[in-house]
Design brief:
Layout (H helix, E strand, L loop, with lengths): L7 H10 L3 H13 L6 E4 L7 E2 L3 H14 L5 E6 L9 H9 L7 H4 L1 H8 L7 H9 L5 H6 L3 H9 L14 E5 L2 E4 H12 L7 E6 L5 H16 L6 E6 L7 E2 L1 E2 L14 E2 L7 H5 L5 E5 L15 H31 L4 H13 L6 H4 L3 H12 L3 E8 L7 E6 L5 E6 L9 H8 L3 E2 L3 E5 L20 E7 L2 E7 L12 E6 L22
Helix pairs in contact: 3-13, 4-9
């Protein structure tokens, strides 16, 4: 491939995005040479001490610890919320593209669409759909009787209601006696129950797409109005966008940059790994991270769903605060004086057994180097991650990974990061007992109260490359190291088993028909 040359116009456009020529050439180099596969050592399991399984008494201890120690802390809930809902309706889109009115065939050829239509009145958005469709002069029943299912679906997904173009956050998920609530609204309810800060107020941070910011602000105003009638709690909300300086150039199958019809270079968002920059702007002692679609209705009588969610969020928060306190004490000791042999042994024991840190390199080093190696491993951001038993749900998993220096560390690994042609690696992958529901609690403060520079703890070799065909062309895209994958690769990582009842995502529209999503 000949050397790629950029015009002065190209360079000005890069500068406008916050990029440099060197960064873009580095992105193209990644396309050309690819990213190395993650090297798995073994799945992280309860048996090999990669995942902590607590007794009821231990759980109660950490929950009490959270309730006590979170008082006076700044607590934040961070939710990536820019993802479009398009994939939720994949089957409905496929159906409308080929359906020609053969009502009898719908159950055989499109079973998920039949389930959707048979249960239409159970969805939280049904009343809105009825209202919008009545403007045409016919009721939904009229359309159903005529087997004109495409008109119903097109009304929901198209310009009239726009559900196919909106982010999941703004879709009505749950039906209550006093109205329906969006996924966004349910995150406010959760924050009210477990993520209130030292002033008794709740702080939430949502990452959004710029084209939806106005609608987000409108919905947040509605949510605040609703809560003002039932509680005196105040919600502080920050909306941020994925920064353009994290965009990545798109290339063809020969790794040549693609240009649009006007000759301008094409850049694409760098995936959710880019959000590490948004996270680094958060100033809080405890940060809960959760996906936008993993919410259940607020029903205090229910002992299995939101009540369970709140319990285990507090558990993870308690584990974080407990470990962080111990870490701060150890770092302060190592930085202020020479530890005794007994103190050093206690520190190493805690790091190995409570923080799951491999100290094989440190133990073989001279004393002063040993201290520095321990400090380097202790003085890092901390994340406590809930892990759910693998019962067929999709998601990345917890693994012991072999690092470049030969040591092992706990990582959340996506299947796309593994060389699945390697029989041994595929075998390790298949032995995983748990998966990642994206249930994280993070501590990004140092022992001295300052915040970590999170960009210093990213493994930049863990990006992703994807291909798709657009017409006759092959277009390659690249994603930055995932937010909870490579972007947090150098964090102190602790995995804790949490029940499946805490994981209730809405990946398809019919997931909203599960019992977990009804009041």
């Amino acid at each position: 491939m000949s050397e790629i040359k950029f015009s002065s116009k190209d360079l000005r456009y890069m500068e406008l995005l916050g990029l440099t020529k060197e960064v873009v050439l580095g992105q193209i180099s990644n396309f050309k040479y690819g990213f190395p596969a993650i090297v798995l050592d073994s799945p992280a399991t309860v048996d090999n001490k990669g995942i902590f399984r607590f007794s009821k008494e231990q759980e109660d201890f950490y929950i009490r610890y959270y309730d006590e120690q979170s008082v006076g802390k700044n607590i934040l809930k961070f939710v990536p919320a820019s993802g479009a809902a398009t994939r939720m309706f994949k089957d409905l889109y496929s159906f409308t593209s080929v359906y020609h009115g053969e009502a009898s065939a719908i159950g055989e050829e499109f079973p998920t669409v039949k389930v959707f239509l048979d249960n239409l009145d159970r969805f939280a958005f049904y009343d809105d759909l009825v209202s919008v469709m009545s403007n045409s002069g016919m009721s939904i029943s009229d359309y159903m009787n005529r087997a004109d299912y495409s008109s119903i679906i097109n009304c929901l997904l198209g310009k009239q209601m726009g559900y196919g173009m909106l982010p999941k956050a703004l879709l009505k998920f749950h039906k209550y006696s006093d109205g329906a609530r969006t996924a966004l609204s349910e995150h406010f309810t959760e924050a009210y129950r477990y993520a209130r800060s030292k002033n008794g107020e709740a702080y939430l941070h949502f990452t959004v797409s710029p084209e939806h910011k106005v609608k987000f602000r409108q919905e947040i105003a509605n949510i605040r109005k609703y809560f003002s009638g039932i509680s005196d709690i105040k919600f502080h909300v920050r909306l941020t966008e994925q920064q353009h300086r994290t965009d990545i150039i798109a290339v063809d199958e020969y790794n040549v940059p693609i240009r649009d019809d006007e000759g301008k270079l094409v850049f694409r968002p760098g995936g959710h790994g880019a959000l590490i920059n948004n996270l680094s702007e958060c100033h809080a002692d405890v940060i809960f991270i959760k996906n936008i679609d993993n919410v259940v209705p607020d029903n205090p009588q229910d002992k299995d769903y939101q009540t369970t969610t709140v319990r285990y969020k507090k558990l993870l928060g308690g584990v974080l605060l407990y470990l962080q306190l111990k870490i701060f004490e150890m770092v302060s000791l190592l930085k202020t004086r020479k530890p005794t042999n007994e103190e050093l042994a206690n520190i190493e024991d805690f790091m190995q057994n409570s923080l799951c840190i491999d100290l094989s390199r440190a133990k073989a080093a001279p004393f002063n180097d040993r201290i520095n190696l321990l400090l380097a491993k202790l003085d890092r951001p901390v994340r406590v991650c809930g892990m759910v038993k693998n019962e067929g749900e999709p998601g990345g998993g917890p693994f012991w990974v072999i690092n470049g220096d030969g040591t092992k560390s706990l990582q959340i690994v996506e299947t796309s990061q593994v060389n699945r042609k390697n029989v041994d690696q595929e075998a390790i992958l298949s032995q995983s007992t748990h998966f990642n529901p994206v249930d994280l609690v993070c501590g990004i403060r140092r022992y001295n109260g300052r915040y970590f520079n999170l960009s210093n703890h990213i493994d930049y070799t863990t990006g992703f490359i994807t291909k798709k065909t657009i017409g006759p062309k092959v277009v390659k895209s690249q994603e930055l190291p995932g937010l909870w994958n490579g972007s947090m690769a150098d964090w102190t990582t602790v995995f804790v088993e949490v029940p499946l009842a805490t994981f209730n995502p809405v990946k398809t529209v019919n997931d909203l028909l599960r019992k977990e999503h009804f009041v």
